[in-house]
Amino acid sequence: QINMTLTRHNAGQLQDVYELARRLGAVAVHIFMLVPVGCGQVLGEMDMLSPQGYEQKMLEICLLDGKGEIQMKVTCGPHYERIIRQQGLHRRPPMPRTSDVSQRNRPHIPGRTGHQGPSRGCLAGMGVIFVNHEGEVYPCGYLPVRCGSILRTPLKDIWLGNADLAAMRDSNRLEGKCGVCGYRTVCGGCRGRAYAATGNYMAEEPFCAYIPPQAIE
């Protein structure tokens, strides 16, 4: 697979990267949407696209993925899940008829049409959890909200009992336009970018251009 962090200076190369992946015989192109925390703060807003810019590029990724030749996966761009649904492209390709786990878990196979969805956007504290080298637990590697330590509390107890993790799993507690968005259960907005922008991990996604009809009323 080929990995790419989407920034202003390379956003125009998306089609070129796709063609490069085809020539090299890669099965996947994974696109990372920058989260301005940690080392990402060095890049910050100077290298990040505008919300409208991300919207345009994720639509482009969606259309490339729809060709079924190479898997196009967006990481830390939860609103991509909204876009593929708006385009009516959230189809799941048939699973291989095999009991071999290594085959079942392979990336999208060239020649199969449609997207790998349905899925959910932001998985912080819901589908993933991050434990650093000191045993401290965070909802994900891009959200510096400490949830406990496995040196003092079993990971299972942190996972099931931490209040911050519980909040992130409840889409009804999202704020701003994310809180009224009809796609909040499949997108949820990036909690890391919300935290970086406001200090509140339940705030609205700051790099989403979509305005839900409910937010206008």
In a nutshell, what does this entry contain?
With 217 residues, the protein is an alpha/beta fold.
Provide a descriptive summary of the structure in words.
The chain is an alpha/beta fold and 217 residues long. It has two domains: 2-94, no CATH class; 130-216, no CATH class. The chain has helices at 14-24, 40-47, 51-65, 80-86, 101-104, 155-161, 163-168, 176-180, 191-198, 213-216; strands at 2-6, 28-33, 71-75, 130-131, 136-138, 148-149. It has a three-stranded parallel β-sheet with strand order 1-2-3, covered by helices on one side. It is globular and about 50 Å long. Mean pLDDT is 85; it is low at 91-115.
List keywords for this structure.
three-stranded parallel β-sheet; globular; 217 residues; 6 strands; alpha/beta; 2 domains; single chain; three-stranded antiparallel β-sheet
Write the layout of secondary structure elements.
Elements: E1 2-6, H1 14-24, E2 28-33, H2 40-47, H3 51-65, E3 71-75, H4 80-86, H5 101-104, E4 130-131, E5 136-138, E6 148-149, H6 155-161, H7 163-168, H8 176-180, H9 191-198, H10 213-216
